[in-house]
Every structure is written in structure tokens, then in C-alpha cells.
Design a protein that fits this description.
The protein is α/β, with parallel strands linked by helices. Helices cover 32% and strands 28% of the residues. Helix 2 (82-99) runs parallel beside helix 4. The radius of gyration is 15 Å and the shape is globular.
Length: 174
């Protein structure tokens, strides 16, 4: 599921259950030595010529920056275009967190559905959004997820890098 490459705003964080994350929880600028915390920027892209969608994830964990990206050609999911990539990128960040003992994960996203479907605030009408909602529910006991909305294409480093990785994954020009 994951493609991993390793290299060494002041909004209120909202947890997946809708509660405001406490100041004592590890959110954002996690202490580099705290292996239970991570921050991920996620983005998706769609290649109209190949009908592939993909994701890019930039994750900060244990003082390192990890890059994840992957493309897919599932026709049903591809109907959601770049949103499918956003969903898969968020799930990849969560899967990484579960597999690496991370218990607090901040996910920065630029498409509101990433938080709204996870929190149950938006109705899940498609197979992909239902699978995403169900996946988030399945990992809630293992990780505390903090969702943070950022404005896309606004110069935020992690988000811009995730966007570039997603575009590269599907073969779009950067």
C-alpha cells in the first residue's frame, strides 16, 4: 500500500471525534525525540490522460522527513479524480502511524472531505468515501488523529511538497 522514501498556521487542531485537541497532546512540531507523534501533509492528483490517481505524503517523524507516493488505476475510485488520491494519502499516513507505534498523528490536508468524512460530518455516498470512513474508525483505538485544514497552493512547504509528490506519482508535469 505504501511507497516510502526516507530523508534525513495557527488553527485549532480538531480530533477525529470532533473534540478540540488539548495543548498537552502532541500536535504539530512534535518533539523530535517523541516517537509517538508524527505530522503528515497529504495531497492527491489525477492524470486525465491515463485516468490514474495518486497521492503524495510528507511525514515528519522521529526528526526525519519521510516521502510517500503511489499511483492507482482503479476506474471506480478514479471517478473521484484527485480526491481519491487525497483519501489514499490520508490512509497511507494512518497506516504508517499504526505500523510504527505512533499514537498521535496530525494530518494537514487541503480538501475538507478528508476531515468531514472521517468525523462523520459529511455523508459517504461512494465506495471510496465509505471505505475511508471505515478505515479511520478501525484505527481510532490505536492512534489519535488531529485534522488541520490548510489552503492549497499557498506556499506551505509540506503541502506544496505533498502536491509535487502526488503529481509525480501520476506522471503530471510539475
Amino acid at each position: 500500500f505504501l511507497g516510502i522514501e526516507s530523508s534525513s498556521n495557527s488553527e485549532i487542531p480538531i480530533d477525529v471525534d470532533g473534540s478540540i485537541a488539548s495543548a498537552s497532546s502532541c500536535v504539530d512540531g512534535c518533539i523530535a525525540s517523541d516517537s509517538s507523534c508524527a505530522t503528515a501533509y497529504v495531497d492527491g492528483s489525477y492524470n486525465i490522460a491515463t485516468k490514474e490517481f495518486g497521492y503524495g505524503v510528507v511525514m515528519f517523524h522521529n526528526g526525519e522527513e519521510l516521502h510517500m507516493s503511489k499511483s492507482f488505476s482503479d476506474a471506480e475510485m478514479a471517478s473521484m479524480r484527485n480526491v481519491a488520491g487525497e483519501i489514499f494519502g490520508s490512509m497511507a499516513a494512518m497506516e504508517y502511524a499504526v505500523n510504527h507505534g505512533i499514537t498521535n498523528l496530525s494530518i494537514y490536508y487541503d480538501y475538507m472531505g478528508i476531515e468531514m468524512w472521517a468525523a462523520g460530518a459529511w455523508k459517504c455516498n461512494k465506495k471510496g468515501t465509505m471505505a475511508y470512513r471505515d478505515y479511520v474508525a478501525s484505527v481510532r483505538d490505536e492512534i489519535r488523529i488531529h485534522f488541520r485544514k490548510v489552503k492549497g497552493h499557498s506556499g506551505i512547504d509540506g503541502n506544496e511538497e505533498a502536491d509535487m509528490l502526488a503529481k509525480q506519482a501520476v506522471g503530471n508535469e510539475i
